[in-house]
User: Fold Ribulose-phosphate 3-epimerase from Microbacterium stercoris.
Amino acid sequence: MSLPAAPRINPSILAADFVNMQAELARIASADFVHVDVMDNHFVPNLTFGPQMVERIQATSPVPLDVHLMISDPDRWAPGYAELGAASVTFHLEAAADPIRLARRLREIGARAGVAVKPGTEVEGLFEHLHEFDQILVMTVEPGFGGQGFMPETMPKLRRLAEETRRRGADVWLQVDGGIAADTIGQAAEAGADTFVAGSAVFGAGDIDAAIAGLRETASAHHRH
Ligand code: DX5
Ligand code: ZN
Assistant:
């Protein structure tokens, strides 16, 4: 499978109409991935859906799946999402018992392995293990809900991660998620993000293709080379 080039725009279906999922997925065919938020009402105080729903999304989506697991015990549950065919599976560092072993397992199954950090979680511990991951997700809101305001205080962490990634020549995508919109995507791109999740900014737009293209354009204009 050839991978989409940066900047990648991944609409979050958390902002979609859940009872019209097939039609909602058809609307984002010009995106790079569909971002699928799995929440267990335990790791985060909200509940979405599990593997049965994600399997149907996988069968229906015009673009590959970028699964974001906001769940406890990902060591046990994350491999199932890779097995059902998700292109990318991201679990939370705060929830994993053995993040490196889990990342290796995800890759073994054939998925890209991602690790996510909440706004208050530091990333220095990941520096010497960057090669174990295909994606690092820096949350730009507290995980759990769509439509929250972007937290600019997460940008220094993203910047350090981008510098370290460059320094080590690691082939890892840097993703941001939460409050990403026309007025915030530029600063995230400038800080080093290359993969952008946007829920309300995409599904809340009148013209979805124009919204995706606009976000991509703004990210490109601000990206550090
Ligand atoms: C939040 C989720 C996000 C959310 C983003 O916990 O991980 O993916 O859908 O929504 P917006 O773009 O509306 O902040
Ligand atoms: Zn998400």
